[in-house]
Amino acid sequence: MTDQSAILSVRDLTVDVELPEGPARIVDGVSFDVRANEVFGIVGESGSGKSIAMLAIMGLLPGSNMRIARGQVLFRGRDLAVLTAQEMRRLRGGELGMIFQDPMTSLNPVLRVGRQIGETVRIHHPDLSKHGVEARVLELLDLVGIPNPRRRYRQYPHEFSGGMRQRAMIAMAIANDPVLLIADEPTTALDVTIQVQIMELLAAVRARTGASMVLITHDLGLVAETADRIAVMYGGRIMEAASAQALFGAPRHPYTVGLLRSLPELHRSTESLYSIPGQPPSVRDRPSGCVFHPRCGLSNGRAPCEERVPELATAGASHHLAACHYSDETPQWR
Q: Which of 3, 63, 10 lies closest to 182 in space, CA to CA?
């Protein structure tokens, strides 16, 4: 059932990739809602499918061998999964903004930064004069905290520091006041001080525009401080979804418990950090039943875990969902 207050409603999103040995499933039946003025976090190990799911939503799947196999992506009532490339271009950079993981590979190295941001403005405001576009870009550079905007306007990406490049990417993403902002690992490879500045900047931008945000990250500390609700992904599926408070306070999926145990605790000294046994599944060889059962300490080889895919269903409190056959046992097991 679709949440009527949702800006974005994803239902049963499934993405396949064509490999030499045959098709493989990268994202498997993902469903979630993003409400107005909300930060929705998506966390999980590398290869869990979180970034591919967002690229599918934006119509930016890399290569011709990837495709949306089924599902709906309803953005303000329109199904993005069935729009043409031209229709998606009208939305991207306008109502939909995206901050990519690595700004150095997202920015064109041979074009000045001001021109690249200006292109986003010009495409969605074709009647704006050249001076009008430049004025908007200078306003954006100032808004995201880049010093001396007029000089920086004419510089190339390699002349920017890592933090400044990320600020330029944010300026490009918010150029046309999007309704929904997707941030894919926006603080990767930045030092802790710059990470804080970037997240404060995103919070300020959202306060000004009222935009909703999907925050994709592997940083549990970051998502705990930022997100209203969180989904945990593993093996292309959502394992658990709940409010940030419920997820961190009373996790109901063994995978979430493992991720939280991997965090260092300031009040307790330890010689080594905990890590979940085993490795994430290969796209080519996903296990039957629950995709997490080979690494799960709660499963213990029980038949339902190996034979049946668990549904993402209510676990404990309302609005707390977990895809686990034995989620009721998780609190005691934990």
A: 10
